[in-house]
Amino acid sequence: MSTDAVPQPGSAGEHLLQDMYGTQDRADRFYQEQMLDVLTPRMVEFLGRQTQMIVATADADGHPDASVRFGEPGFVAALDDRTLTWPELRGNGVMTTLGNLVKNPWTHLMFLDAEERIGLHLRGQASIVEAAVMAEDHPEVATRPSTGRPPERWVIMRLISSYIHCRKHFPRADAPIDWGTDDVRAKGGDYFGARDTPSPWDVPPTAR
Questions:
Q1: Going residue by residue through the chain (208 aa), what tens digit of pLDDT does each one get?
Q2: CA-wise closest residue to 163 among 63, 60, 31
Q3: Using an 8 Å Cβ cutoff, are 86 and 69 in contact?
Q4: Which of 54, 23, 40, 12 has the alpha carbon at shortest distance from 164?
Q5: At the topology level of CATH, where does 37-187 sit?
Q6: Which of 43, 130, 151, 199 has minimal CB crowding within 10 Å?
Q7: End-to-end CA distance of the chain
Q8: Mind spelling out the 3-state secondary structure of 53-88?
Q9: What is the CA radius of gyration of the chain?
Q10: Contact 193, 120 (CB under 8 A)
């Protein structure tokens, strides 16, 4: 994939404050070394162990919502290296998350693994898929054995970016937390194998 026409990742607000506070070089290193537009094999393996995720959405007016989803290990499944899915179980009927997705498909997922003391962020655009359609299109996922009521529907998210949530501020019982450290090992290093994975913005940024 050519990188010539791909803009540097990050919002206009991010870049404004990076310039204002002098953190642009540090941010650029993160974008180039840790942010991807795919799921690495290590990310897929990580997702296969997770039993909860935080899902953030916003409605058409930008009003935000954050919710949590729980499930058996692997309830969030990768369909390929740029697509993932999760089941929507019976809830309270309010449907805030899905209601937001109907009007605004942008979605942010966050996984925090307390045992590994590492996290994963996934951003993308999501759509709702009815259970019958999911069973026909992706039977390897939709027909997996489960306990309790089957999912009423599924969500499929097309990945835009993936990146690490480093471990330096994760709670720990074996040692003090080194708040604000820049030590690479303390932050988790290249936990998800991002540095060896090409990305569309894996080039020095152009002048902003």
A1: 444 556 778 899 999 999 999 999 989 888 988 999 999 999 999 999 999 999 999 999 999 999 999 999 989 999 999 999 999 988 888 899 999 999 999 999 999 999 989 999 999 999 999 999 999 999 988 887 776 788 889 999 999 999 999 888 888 888 888 888 888 877 888 999 998 898 887 655 554 5
A2: 31
A3: yes
A4: 40
A5: Pnp Oxidase; Chain A (2.30.110)
A6: 130
A7: 22
A8: EEEEEECCCCCEEEEEEECCCCCCEEEECCEEEEEE
A9: 18
A10: no
Beta-carbon contacts of residue 191 (< 8 Å; ≥ 6 apart): 42, 118, 164, 167
Tokens standing for residue 93: 């009927």
Alpha-carbon distance of 37 to 161, in angstroms, equals: 4
One-letter amino acid at 94 equals V
50-to-73, 95, 205 alpha-carbon distances in Å: 5, 23, 34
